[in-house]
Design brief:
The chain is an alpha+beta fold and 310 residues long. It contains seven helices and 13 strands. Helices cover 27% and strands 26% of the residues.
Length: 310
């Protein structure tokens, strides 16, 4: 018996990388919200592997509330000893199917769109030096570095237009590039479309959750906590999927407005102040003290670098 469900079966595809997860820096913010969600099933502090009270964005140090968790271990302990079937789901065998397949929407089918999908690549590296916690704007996307503890870091790059094959960790950090040793590498895509443009949320007996219905910040590409919140909303409205949809759209309406700001940037236009404020409000919710002027500078830098200007 699991949370009121007498018969639950799990399905997945065979993992293609070492940790079994697609590119993700394992960050959660704010930590209190992660604690609230994870404590429903586990002891959240057991999965905390690093914490930083500041973050560097394009060379500017800002206050932050960023925690890195052991995401693969957290998922493993949530699943416990339940059998995970590898392969497609036999839809006829179940009363309801939850599609948590992210970009693929394997059972929901295509979204109404138009979709905004970014490619990303990530390395797990070991370094004797503390590489820090930082983001660097690069065209219509950014590079990132997240500490994992014990001298290891996630370093990655995501972008709506750039070539992922050209990315090399620390390529812009001079001598520091020689100080790290790659352990593994993975690639994937991330949906930046927002829930509003990722409908329908249901398809017959199938209902979507998390990234499959666009619960990812379009400008920050953050989604760990939003996926957990979305799952909570689904359980709360299990018997009323219309209310589930309306609750998701209401809770993440800011994602719709961020996505519209991103569309302007794709067209080479600097978003207006109202869109800048949506992003700074998002940043504040996750504990990053980013002001409107700094956010506007980020947007301008993203547009300039996407055009090949420094």
């Amino acid at each position: 018996m699991t949370a009121g469900f007498s018969d639950v079966e799990l399905f997945d595809v065979r993992p293609t990388n070492q940790c079994g997860q697609k590119p993700c820096a394992w960050g959660v913010a704010p930590y209190k919200e992660y604690q609230r969600l994870a404590s429903k099933f586990l002891e959240p502090d057991e999965y905390r592997i690093a914490f930083r009270d500041n973050i560097v964005i394009d060379g500017v140090r800002l206050k932050a509330d960023m925690t890195i968790i052991d995401k693969p271990r957290l998922i493993h302990d949530l699943v416990q000893d339940a059998e995970v079937h590898l392969g497609p789901i036999p839809l006829d065998a179940f009363e309801r199917v939850v599609d948590a397949t992210g970009v693929e929407r394997a059972y929901l089918g295509p979204a109404i769109g138009p979709e905004l999908i970014a490619d990303c690549v990530q390395y797990r590296v070991r370094s004797e030096a503390d590489l820090g916690l930082w983001f660097k704007t690069t065209g219509l996307g950014y590079e990132w570095c997240f500490p994992l503890g014990d001298g290891e870091f996630h370093m990655g790059f995501g972008n709506l237009a750039a070539d992922m094959d050209s990315y090399r960790p620390l390529a812009t950090m001079g001598e520091a590039q020689a100080a790290y040793k790659p352990r593994c590498k993975c690639r994937s895509r991330v949906r930046l479309s927002s829930p509003f443009y990722s409908r329908p949320f249901t398809n017959g007996k199938v209902v979507g959750v998390g990234e499959s219905i666009g619960s990812v910040g379009p400008l920050g590409a953050d989604g760990n906590l939003y996926a957990m919140q979305c799952a909570e909303l689904l359980i709360d409205h299990w018997d009323d999927l219309r209310r589930y949809e309306s609750s998701v759209l209401k809770k993440y309406d800011w994602m719709r407005r961020e996505r519209e700001a991103l569309e302007k940037m794709v067209k080479g236009r600097v978003p207006p102040l109202r869109d800048v404020r949506v992003f700074t409000s998002h940043s504040k919710r996750v504990g990053i003290e980013l002001g409107p002027v700094q956010a506007l500078q980020l947007f301008k830098r993203a547009i300039d670098t996407s055009r090949g200007r420094s």
